[in-house]
Amino acid sequence: YPWYDAPNYENGTWQHWNHEWFSNWDRSDTKTYPTGFHVPPDDIGSLFFPSLGPYSSRDPLVIDQHMKWIASAKINVVVVSWIPEEKTDPNSFSWDSLVPLLMDSADNYGLKLSFHLEPYEGRTAASVKNDIIKIIDKYGNHSAFYRTFPKNQSKSGKALPLFYVYDSYMVSTDD
Q1: 9 lies in some domain
Q2: Which residues of 83-166 form beta strands (DSSP E)?
Q3: In the prediction, which pLDDT does 35 show?
Q4: For residue range 41-52, what is the model confidence (pLDDT) as tens digits?
Q5: Rounded Cα–Cα distance for residues 173 and 44 (Å)
Q6: Is residue 69 part of a domain?
């Protein structure tokens, strides 16, 4: 997820490390759990503390280190969450603005990058189609853009982009 930010990078603010504590989903459990918001840098919204500390997803050194680790683990494809620029939280930064840096860094390590389309208000089948067209038009010629062959197609056919559509069930079946 490219949504993390921290004050230690280019005057950032705490983003996502400081999210609200989840409430207890088991109403019969009477234990008291924390409420309110996480307070970084020592209390972050994660079960695991990152070895780089609570970082900014915008930091090129952080991106490079993650790509290096991913490549050393023999992973070939990185999947990054994406929302359209115009749907970006006005109190945050554009995830789309990070894609060129992510693509270039992935390419430096021989990795490919695919997109995990996040839900947003007003998302429809037509808007998802437009998002996919926008991504292909903007990034489809980059050497790190992930394409694969459909299972029923030979390798002599055309490799196609692969997208993950998160919460696809939220798009009406009538759409």
Answers
A1: no
A2: 112-117, 147-148, 160-161, 163-165
A3: 82
A4: 999 988 899 999
A5: 38
A6: yes
